[in-house]
Every structure is written in structure tokens, then in C-alpha cells.
């Protein structure tokens, strides 16, 4: 019996083998936007509705393509470079020199001048639907809801659903169903400008996006892709779905022609080293909670935003012991937080800076008993019950502190362990599959198709902001569609007789 393709239902058929044209692994923002494109939603440069793009050089280059899809203008990395090679000189536009030029290109077309015209940026793209370009595909994500990491419960890292996102809502918005539309639908009024939504609001938006944008039939959550191998006709993907109270366990294989990796670089929290094991022992924590008579300090290790979120989320009178790296040549990312735009993060950075300025003992910005900062210190011993730690300071002093609990916040990393060893090697990952922003950056700069018929999008390209995910997605979608092109005379004949191969997406007979 031939493998069956996916149906329009979000319940996967019970057969063991299925097929589709493209498998997207990951269900975060980049995967959702790519699915929107593969549904046949086509972007075209629009210089009429809101006038030409404010970058005259870019306007001139894009105008050469007339009403042709934007995919034609970025059909190769060389073509993309031709459109963006002047960006470094267009200082009046404020183009990022850190993100991939292709990602900057789509960002400035979706929201020109967004950094200086929050709420006033007008898109220079128009969208049309073309069923002939629709590609059979599925989006497979281990997160419980669409949105990837955004849908994860922040309590596991000691933070809160009520922590505000770093980005403004416009910067988290996806074409097809904007954050502004979602806000109006939820609250019945216009969204204010300069709105930093809470993590809960962002998760709610991405969770609502698939149905609102018309892509929910292809988006699957709580499923785990693994043992992805290259085959003679494309790729095989083993998929596992955990059982729930309403759904049984399910395992199956998907065969596809194209593979897109959208799992990001932030899926796994870096665990504490072995010295902290007594602090992680549930038996110690349970016993101590029973004997606890007063509030003791919370130990926070880390110098980035997650560590700051833990401190911000702590009760007002909670004592904090904060161990962090302090390097003036590679400062904490908190340094870039303006005191007016991000007052909570600027406050934490001031505490860290004051602690680093004191070369002999910890400093306190508020009260001596509330916050102790230890720059470039390390924990050298932990008592068996996990309550007492010994700290070696940067000055060589050894101090003892009694603590309550630990929040170890030194970063996250992604993983490509779901790929076979051979495919990981072809992609450019030689170890057990751990990836960071730098792992695939050089390959992504050369081509987002990192090996034949395999693309990376989202933060796997090295650009972690949602707004810089669009370029890679548009490039991958254009290349996948180009691989399915059918001459117009053949297309007309096929439409009159049967669903085209693109519609079924079946690549394995």
C-alpha cells in the first residue's frame, strides 16, 4: 500500500508511513511564517500603496522585477547580495550590520524604518494567494503549542508569564495575522504604540496564529522528530507523539523531498555543573522546606536576561546572591538596555556594575542585605544538604553563604541530535548535535541551503530576533517552490484533470 499524504485534519492518520513534499522541524515563529508562505501566500514589492521604499537604491533594484514575486528577486544568495550590497553605505536607513543581509532585506520590506517609526512603519509588500504555488508540507514541533519556546512555561527557569518581552509587539508580528490584529480581536481596541507584550501575551498570539492565518491544518504540536535520514528520494523522518489523556501514543514515518530545520538555538537550558548537585537534590529541598523558619538568599548564576528576569521576578524582600561574569570587552547584553525603554534591566545592570566597581567586597545598590553581587566569582564547595556554599571571589577571598535555592542561568543551546550522524555532518555539525548562534553562521552566510535540499531558518542562521527570520523563510520557500515549477501549458492541463503532484506532496510511491 502506498504511503498516504496528510489530510486537512490536524489529527495525523494512523498509518505507519506518510509522505509530503516538505517537512519543517520546529513550530516557532520562523516555522509558522514559512508555512504561511508554502500555503501559496506570495509577497510582491509594492511601491504604490504607501509610496516607494524610503531607500531609493533598493526601490530602483526591486522595481526591475515589476509585479513578479519577491522570490524571483532573491532566487539565489548572489541575487540577494546584489539587492543588499549598498546597505552598509545607507547609514540614513539604520540597517543592521549584525544580521544576515537577506534577513535585513525582508525586515525592511515588512516594516521599513521600524526602529525609528514604531507603529508608523508601512509595509512595502503586498500579498496574494496562488494555489498553484502551494506546497504540501507539515510543521512538526515538540512544544505543546505553536510558538516554540515562547509557549514553554517560564516557571521552569524561575521567571514569570508576566515578564515583558524585550521586543515591541510589532517586532514579534508575523505577516498574515499581525500582533495588532490579534490585540484588537482580544481587547476590542487598538494596540498602543511602543507596546512590550508580556510573555503570556506573546504565547497567546503565536498560539492563535495558525488558525487565524489559515495554516492550522499543517501545524502539529507535541510531536518529536528524530532519526532523520537522507534517502534515495529525499528524507525519512521518524515521528513520535507522547500519549495524553485524550490521545494515544503514536509513532510513524514521514517521507519528504525537502527538509527545513527551524528548531532554533535556545531549546535546551545549559545544566549546572556537578558541584551544584546537592542544590538540585529533591530530598534536600523537601526536608529544608519543612524546617525553614526564615527567608534565605536566592542564588542566581548568570549575567544575561534570564538571570535578570529571575531577579526581577523575585519577591520585593527576597535576598539575592548574584554570581556573574564581568568582562568590559564582552559586556553583559544588559548593558545595551536603555534606562527609559528597559528600566528593569538597566537597574539590574547598575547593580552588577556597582558590584564590579568594588574590588574588595560585594556591593549593594539597595540595602546591604538585599543584593550581593560577585563578579567573576565561582562556587568551590557546596555542603551535602545543599544549604551552605563557599564562594571564591575575583580577589581571592573565600566566603561562606547560606542559601535557599539555585537558579542557574548561563544560557541555552539548540540541538540537531534528531538528525542522523551522517546528515549532521553534511549540515556542518560534527559533535553530538549541540548548536549555538555561531555554529552554522558561516554556512548560512554562504547559503541557507546548507546541504542539498536542507535549509536552516530562524535563529539557526545566527539571527535570534523574530524580525530577522523572514528573509531565510522567504528564500527557502522560493527555492522549494522553484523545485516544483511546472510550465503553464502543463499546469493548465493538470488542473483540468487531477490534483497536481504539488498538491498531494507525495514523493514516495
From TrEMBL:
Q: Which InterPro entries match?
A: FAD/NAD-bd_sf, OSGIN1/2
This chain's protein is named L-ornithine N(5)-oxygenase
